[in-house]
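Task: sequence design from structure.
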């Protein structure tokens, strides 16, 4: 059984939109966002750059954190990202050695 869960934030290519999600397979989920089959928020706004993530062993903790962040202002979300990723780099290449 997989006990790895990730809360993640994707940023649009233009930097105007943020997407927050939870998954148990971050690499596969990034691939899904980058290769959408249907109309979705991430497809519409081209949210494909992984700019922040947190790891959890418990899905309920990950979902609670997602709910918490979704209630935050954009300014507070930006500050969270900038603490660990001040240049807003796409972190996927560091995690997976290239695009997932």
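Answer:
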């Amino acid at each position: 059984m997989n006990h790895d869960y990730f809360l993640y934030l994707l940023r649009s290519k233009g930097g105007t939109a943020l997407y927050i999600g939870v998954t148990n397979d971050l690499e596969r989920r990034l691939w899904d966002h980058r290769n959408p089959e249907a109309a979705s928020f991430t497809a519409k706004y081209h949210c494909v750059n992984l700019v922040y993530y947190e790891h959890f062993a418990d899905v309920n903790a990950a979902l609670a954190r997602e709910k918490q962040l979704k209630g935050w202002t954009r300014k507070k979300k930006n500050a969270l990202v900038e603490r660990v990723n001040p240049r807003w780099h796409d972190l996927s290449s560091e995690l997976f050695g290239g695009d997932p």
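Residues 5 and 24 are 4 Å apart (CA to CA).
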